[in-house]
Amino acid sequence: RDLSWNQFSGPIPLYKLADNMTTVDLSHNKLNGTIPRGVVYPHLQRLQLENNLLTGSFPTTIWQNISFSRKAKLIIDIGNNLLSDIFGDLNPPENVTLRLSGNPVCKNSNIQRIGQFCVLEGRDIDEEFANSTICPKGGKRKTGILVAIIIAAVACVLAISAIIMLLMFRRNVKYQHLISRKRMSSSVCIKIDGVKSFTLKELTHATNKFDISSKVGEGGYGIVYKGILSDETFVAVKRAGENSLQGQKEFLTEIELLSRLHHRNLVSLTGYCNEDGEQMLVYEFMPNGTLREWISGKSKKCKEGLSFFMRLRIAMGASKGILYLHTEANPPIYHRDIKASNILLDSNFTAKVADFGLSRLIPYSDEDGHVPNYVSTVVKGTPGYLDPEYMMTHKLTDKSDVYSLGIVFLELLTGMHPISRGKNIVREVNLACQSGKIDSIIDNRMGEYPPECLDKFLALALSCCEDHPEERPSMIDVVRELEDIIALLPETEISLSDVSLDNSGKMAPPSSSSSSATTSGFITTRKDQQHMSSYVSGSDLVSDVIPTIVPR
Which residues bind ATP (predicted)? Predict the structure, then answer.
């Protein structure tokens, strides 16, 4: 039985082994104590206890109770222990091979014949089984040395060959990469209405040579820089990283696709660059940064938190942008990476959905006219926002985006991260609702709010985060529910459609002509009042009407 290399410690467990055992290998462990004297294994052929911490005496009784036939042999290897003496007569039968090398007992010259059992160190124990009266021992040792030299030489040759092949492979990959970049750099630009083809020189100058001070963000596509064009227009330049570079055809196809997306709640593509191996996308610049910065309080532009009304307005804007992607874009698109850091805010705090680097086109109908309601794909996205069903089945649907948007809604209400210190935002909010402690999780930085509106917004957010997709609302239902919630809002001093930042970084109120019902900015809504949102314009989605938007 082979029990070697197991880090066993303590005394030798020989009493627990079967009597008919022929091989016992307990070598290379941490066994200590003495070797038992009274254990009898009549069929034992090999006992290996080398490289342990055994002490005391070696009992010669081990072989006394074994009846050896002419062919039977017993090999005992107890080398490299701490044995200091021999118990009994050290005169084993011819059939017994004993190894004691590496033990203190080998230095005891008072023990007769001890030397012949301490000179086997360095020999293969299996060599004893191959001993023959026909082959001299000296000849076998020379053969073993020769075999070892041959094996070592072959191993060296293989190692050197592997290193050379690896170096050649890396060199070839680098060469192919350079060739690929040269091919891309020689690609011609295409003319797309509303999208400008920038030169590398223009964008290098606009971003101050892509200086680190111009960096405003970083995502899966690459680093985002703030740029100032020659006409003093601010833009966001997304520079593709090494792992995001595409072929000429794929890159231009993506630009053509993005150029079709036109909606007030989507970040607009204004240009691109495809030169000298560089691939960059140029978008309109969002001066108020990401929603995540405002929710977390990390934005340097405003020390005040977003009010409840502004948060509700941002939720509506993001929802309309996603609804457009699902139903009006040509072809329709699943975003696949909706999160607070991918929702940007312009100077008026209008929400604009950004970063379609992970988006997937919705499949067209097959020959029978059937359109699959999902896309089979490798799971990608951001932990905390990923739809559980999508993670398990790899089937991306419109309800996957609904789930991610529901997480954003919960962030707007609580100010929490989706996952923080082992806490999940969905679970924490559900626990608070069940225990009647909703107020304990609501972000106190958003000031006063109508309780009825908050309850409905919270219920909508949780419904979007249901585990089963069929229990979640569709995007059009999300937009309609938000419209109903906005209709319940009271008139306020600050018009939600006219919020901006002044030069000091504080929220600037609208002009004095804006209507208000009270000087406090908050009133109680009477049941007989019907208030429509002051920022739902004629071009927005309202009550069962989806505008017709024809992409370029």
Answer: 238
